[in-house]
Amino acid sequence: MIFATDYFNDTKNELSEFNLKLLLNIEDLNNVIFDEVFTILSPQQQEQYIVFRTSEEAGKYRKERNSKLSYVDFNNLPEIFDDKLLKNIILYQKDGEVGGAIYDLLSEDHKGQITQYEWKIYEEEKAKRRALMSEDEKRKEKEWWDKYDADPTPRFMGNMGEPDNADQYVLRYGIDPFTGKPETIKSFYEKYTIDSHGNIIPKENNQ
Q1: Residues 144, 141: Cα–Cα separation, whole Å
Q2: Which among 63-72, 106-115, 126-135, 191-200 has the top mean pLDDT?
Q3: This prediction's pTM
Q4: Cα–Cα distance, 184 to 174 (Å, whole number)
Q5: Of 90, 128, 135, 147, most Cβ neighbours within 10 A?
Q6: Residue 142: left if φ>0, alpha if ψ -120 to 50, beta else—which one?
Q7: How far apart are CA 200 and CA 189, in angstroms?
Q8: Count of H helices and E strands in the chain?
Q9: Nearby residues of 172 by Cβ (< 8 Å), 6 or more positions away
Q10: Are the C-beta atoms of 126 and 118 separated by less than 8 Å?
């Protein structure tokens, strides 16, 4: 299954700026799936993209994208990522229009390596932050977690045959697994973060 098609399945009218840029990135970075994604578009949407990809706007976007993202040959990814490649791929993933284009190029093992690396960096940064916290700040943090852990509200857990992670659930179904509302990866990561226990929580609750 190609997850990138999820971004276009329910788009009936004109393609949004996000979808136009996503499609451009698929063509540039993951061309092997471009035709399959392109064919699910309506004739009007296909024409809209054909006009866009040769436009001055598309050229400017490509230039900006290439200037802020180090080159990665996604068609020849090694089985094991080194730290430099992990850092670069994570930067690609954090850009919504780019992340959706490369997701299908990553194996489950690749995604596991990325998750482990992000967790390591998170723990290192967390340790640095805690070293700078006052005792009062540590007390308030503990009170917050005690209250959170006591909350019986169910949290998303992957089920057999279903996506293991909430972000994979969003990519597969285009739905927030917590609220049941339509969602994209870009909007999902604008709302949620991963805490020190590996739980996905709303960003506003982590302020």
Answers
A1: 5
A2: 63-72
A3: 0.64
A4: 6
A5: 90
A6: alpha
A7: 10
A8: 10, 2
A9: 1, 3, 6, 163
A10: no
Here the tokens at position 106 are 């990553």
Give the separation between CA 24 and CA 49, rounded to whole angstroms. 8
Please tell me the predicted confidence (pLDDT) of residue 33: 93
Burial of 45 (0-12, 13-18, 19+ CB in 10 A): buried
CA gap 183, 3 in Å, rounded:
14
Name residue 201's beta-bridge partners. 193
pLDDT tens digit sequence for 89-126: 999 988 888 999 999 999 989 988 988 898 888 888 88
Q: In Å, what is the CA distance from 78 to each residue of 2, 3, 11, 85, 113? A: 21, 21, 35, 10, 12
Check residue 175 and report its DSSP letter.
Answer: B
Q: What is the spatial distance between Cα 48 and Cα 12, in angstroms, rounded to a whole number?
A: 13
192, containing H or E segment = strand 192-194
